[in-house]
Automatic annotation (TrEMBL):
GO CC terms in record: cytosol; protein-DNA complex
GO molecular function: phosphorelay response regulator activity; transcription cis-regulatory region binding
DNA-binding region: 1-98
CDD domains: trans_reg_C
Alphabetic keyword roster: DNA-binding, Phosphoprotein, Transcription, Transcription regulation, Two-component regulatory system
BP GO annotations: regulation of DNA-templated transcription
Coiled coil: none
The protein, known as: Winged helix-turn-helix domain-containing protein
Domain of life: Bacteria
InterPro entries tied to this protein: OmpR/PhoB-type_DNA-bd, Sig_transdc_resp-reg_C-effctor, WalR-like, WH-like_DNA-bd_sf
Start and end residues of each OmpR/PhoB-type domain: 1-98
Organism whose genome encodes this protein: Christensenella massiliensis
């Protein structure tokens, strides 16, 4: 399965990510966060939901780990591109959307 968000391609079967012509190398955890956002593209995903599904823990553990990984993903996916695909919704969560 391949999920497209604008010019970002997340290939679930091959665990690869491309933005335009550029291959993007992600750590295993970065990939899992991006995959979850891609599977729920255009929807707001809460920090608690990401903690539960990516880290398999409740909101109390690693309170800022989601924010840190979103920052890592933005550096690899959005930096250098005019159009930003990872959006923050204050006090709600994040969304991967064109």
């Amino acid at each position: 399965m391949r999920i497209m968000v604008d010019n970002l391609a997340v290939d679930i079967d091959n665990r690869t990510v491309r933005r335009g012509d550029e291959d993007i190398r992600l750590t295993a955890k970065e990939y899992e966060v991006l995959k979850y956002l891609a599977l729920h593209k255009d929807k707001i995903v809460s920090r608690a939901e990401l903690l539960e599904h990516v880290w398999d823990c409740d909101y109390d553990c690693f309170s800022n780990v989601v924010d840190v990984y979103i920052r890592f993903l933005r550096a690899k996916i959005d930096d250098g591109h005019e159009k930003k695909l990872i959006k923050t919704f204050r006090k709600q969560g994040y969304s991967l959307t064109a």
